[in-house]
Amino acid sequence: MTVVPGQHPHRPVESGTGPAEAELDIRSLFGQSTAVFASLAGPAHLVEAANPAFFTAIGGGDRVRTGVPLADLVPELAGHELMTLLDAAFRTGRTHTGRDARVLLGTPPAVREAFFDFTYEPRFDAGGNVTGVRVIGVETTQVKHAQRLTAEHRALLEQIARQAPLDQVLDGMVRVIEELAPYEILASVLLADSDGRHLRHGAAPSLPSFYNQAIDGIAAGEGVGSCGTAAHRRQMVIVDDIATDPFWDDFRELADRAGLAACWSTPILARDGSLLGTFAMYHRVPRTPQESDLALSRVFADTAALAVERHQAERARLAAEAKEAAARKDLAFLLRASTALSSDLDHTQTLRRLATACVPALAPLSAVDIVEAGRVRRVATAAPTRDEETLLASHIPLYDADDDAVARVLASGLSEVARRTPTGPGPWHDLGVTGYLCLPLLDRGRAFGTLTLLSTGEHVFDGHAVALAEELARRAALAVLNARQYTQRVALARDLQAGLLLPRVPELPGAEAAVHYHPAGEGLDIGGDFYDVFPLRDGGWAFMLGDVCGRGAIAATTTALVRHTARAVAPLLPGPEAVVHAVNQALLDRPQDHGTGFVTLVYGHLTPVDSGGLDIDLVRAGHTLPLLIDGAGPVRPVELDGALLGIAADPHLPTRRLRLAPSESLLLYTDGIIEARDGGRDQFGEERLAAALDAGIGTGHTARDVIAVLTEAVREFTLGTEVDDDQAALVLTATPTA
């Protein structure tokens, strides 16, 4: 290994290029113009005198002689345009000037290309005869080469700026260096792995293929040739004679086969100092670099660094965009699946949608199993064909089987993935199963079911697919639990509501009763509307219809308080007014945590008349006005004052007595009916209610007829609009005989 003159033979050359080093590299590449002078005599152009620069330009050595014809001293000039012009200057006596004259000096293999700007001035004697020619010139070889190199370098930078493919840029860079070098070189670029520990083939168009293949993947380490050592040291390493340098002990035979005798390697470093690769210049003969060679290596190593960093940045950008696109795709999939899973509050339907969402997005086949009463039940499957789905649905895993993946996942609560068919019996061969992923559906850490995805053909589950499937399973489990809780809450609310309403309408002497009840919302809360009909000791009957402020458990306790208080005191008190006062006092006496809302109520006692009809004593406490319906005339409201209950200690509650003739009806209803809204948010209202009853109820009607006309009118008005408030109605119709 050698270095530039004056350096220790085993000390590497620093490869960093700061501002000072960059300026030095530019000066080294462009060089300095050298003036040459020679005095030639006679037609043979004998060299009489010349300056040292002249002899250096023509090759030095044994050519440093005078008294010798120029053609003999520099035989390669024979037949060259320079000699033709020189002869012309001697013959004509005229001065000749030329620029950028190109000449190849030296003999193989040490031939070099040179360029000169020159002037031939004839020399005259006293008689005006030409005696010789003075040659005055400037060698511009380095300037010429540097200009060409600069143009090519600019073209490479433009390629990098246009984001040309890295292999194209590196190949072009290597070819430029090989073409413009003043002597034969073979250049190569090796690129570092992401860990910086190995070097891979980048570009080396002039090196033999067997050589490139042999060094592809060499380690970056001390003594691993020129390139491995340069990569390890992060410094330029120069080996001027491969045959004797210990760095090449393991590669000497390979280099000999490739005809390589010297190698100068420069590390390609990123701006942060990390290794990107190496740039090497090989030679067929042992060679020691000059300063211009070192500058050339540094300049193009920096160019290669720029190209590699730009390439890596572009790859990172594309990878980030691909990752972002994949994340968006995953998120879109999860959102679609989550929407489908939560679109139905039936947990079995949710599990079926889960199986469908997985095929083919996550796997060719899917199955969902849940545990019920200590046994596994397959509730959903999905497959490309109906036959495959039927076959998959026919397989039921065993809950306690050690060789069954579903059983193991149910027991452990952990996902299981394998690139083989599941253990245990199953239609795996018929379905072409090649792998599986079994995921638990968890409820507070315990598995209540599993989602099994099955691979076929070349499909495999990678880490990304497993993570996506686990997230989907987590969301599905939550959706199933929500659906189950919803079902349970609806059932609970329904049961509680049933306990607060009549299980059935009783048969009344001399009267027919019919009721309508429609809770608001989805049935999750207990409504605040209520009604009741119950017997009294004297053969009469009590009836009521009311509305509790609010919904839910508090409304339920208030409803129960009103009904049970009325039922308890009605047999003991003289009439409706006393009963309603007792209810009001019970509301005032209730604990704070049982609610403080008011209650509206219509309460009455009815007694059948022997000749037919009903006598009714009625109290209205802040409720909507009851309606009298006879079928012959217009509907009439029962005008009756009365204050809200649960507000004042002694509300004004007068009693109104009515007699219903046979086929006459009394309608009690809550404000949810007249406040029902259509799509334009207009209310149904009292006028529409009266008009519907007038148009739909005739003489001889029944209580059920009234309910049917009322509910149909509200339904047509709302046109499927969600009910905002509970709706309740109670109809009492007098029959012809008691």
UniProtKB/TrEMBL annotation:
InterPro entries: Bact_Sigma-Reg, GAF, GAF-like_dom_sf, PAS_4, PPM-type-like_dom_sf, PPM-type_phosphatase-like_dom. GO terms for molecular function: phosphatase activity. Keywords: Hydrolase. Residues 511-734 form the PPM-type phosphatase domain. Residues 165-318, 346-490 form the GAF domain. The keyword Hydrolase applies. It comes from the Bacteria. PANTHER family: STAGE II SPORULATION PROTEIN E, STAGE II SPORULATION PROTEIN E-RELATED. This is GAF domain-containing protein.
